[in-house]
Amino acid sequence: MDPETKVERLNLSWNMIRCEGAAAIAKAMETNTTLQRVSFSMNVLGPEGVTAIAKALKTNDTLIELLLSCVEAGPEGVVAISKALERNRTLEILNLHGNDFGLEGLRAIAKVMKTNTSLQVLGLESNDICDTGALVIAKALETNNTLKKLFLIRNSIGPKGAAAIAKALEINDGLQVLSLGRIILDRKVRHLLPRPWK
To answer: How far, in Å, CA of 14 to CA of 167, rounded?
Structure first.
């Protein structure tokens, strides 16, 4: 990718890209000044490939959307992305659906949520987030007022976790869309969620 190539959107989903390919593309992203949206979803990038993309995020100041759905990022890759977002101030949309990053990755995301002021849409679907993880997210939501949309469907959040998130929403006045999937229909939790989440 030539730095002067005027490509604004790049969809690389389902292309059997692995670590080496991701690293090569990430290297070009470090200096490219036109790319705004890129999807690496459904490729086997692994932690090393995602870490290479994270490195590019530290210097790239034009990218606003990064889709990393089902790329086998694992905890290491998600921690790297989170650390990159401590420096990056342009990314607005991040999807980490289906990456099995565990509590370690979630804590890294929550930490950056407390300080990052650009991220507006965050997808954490299908990551086996349980009540413990929900408590981590809730704590971050208490101080984050930048995030507008948060997607948590197809996780393992129960009434206790949902209640913690509901409590955080009493403080957070920035979030506009919260997707908890079937949890939002659970009678044990529904009454705890303040409007407009009911």
So the answer is: 39
Q: What domains are defined for the chain?
A: 9-190 (3.80.10.10)
Q: How many CB atoms lie within 10 A of CB 59?
A: 12
Rounded (10°) CA dihedral 22, 24, 25, 26: 80
Q: Report the Cα 36 to chain-centroid distance in Å.
A: 16
Structure tokens at 111: 């930490």
Element (H, E) at 64: none
- Taking only the tens of pLDDT, the chain with its 198 residues reads 555 558 999 999 999 999 999 999 999 999 999 999 999 999 999 999 999 999 999 999 999 999 999 999 999 999 999 999 999 999 999 999 999 999 999 999 999 999 999 999 999 999 999 999 999 999 999 999 999 999 999 999 988 898 899 899 989 989 999 988 765 444 455 555 555 554
Q: Two tokens at 20?
A: 């080496």
